[in-house]
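Reply to dn_fold:

You asked what the input looked like. This is it:
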Amino acid sequence: MQVRVELGILQMELSGRPDGGVSVFETRFGADLNPGVGGLDSELCRVLHREAALYAYRALVCSSLELHERVVADASRNLEVMDFMIAHANDASDRQAARALRVQSLVMRVRARASHALASQTPAIARSLVEDGIQEVQAALRLAGRSEEVESAAEIQLLRSLVEVLIPKLPASQRHEMELRLKAALEVENYELAAILTNELRQLF
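and this is what came back:
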């Protein structure tokens, strides 16, 4: 994959490490994710952070190209790296940096999953993914020491806006008609129909 940048063209691999090199995380720690004796020192954490930045940049480019599955894969990979550093980094500052980057990777993955669902003509699933993702990101914010921002953080506001931006709504007239039908169903105590209409409204708006 080639990307035009200010100083020329940047080439990235679509699989494996984006720059074509050998992945430090995957090759050094393997499937069992064993940090070895002594945990992760700050220099190794810096190496893992730099490597994660390569994957994050590729995910960003793939997002603009609507390669949603690739974005999900890279974001999930980076989340695994961040969790590994949170669990095994020796220095508290390295653990905190990993917690902060976890938030960014989660947001990227939620957006990609929702976009993929929307592209697959499943807006209700897209909405559910965003709503679940908001809870995930709020938990990550708390872990990162940002408990006071779980409602106001830019990341949360961005995800909430996805419900408006990514998921198309019915025309206002059609929504009004459904609301009138719901009201009529409740008035005649047709609770089965009311439940169906309520569920449809919840999924579509």
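The CA atoms of residues 45 and 134 lie 28 Å apart.
Hope that clears it up.
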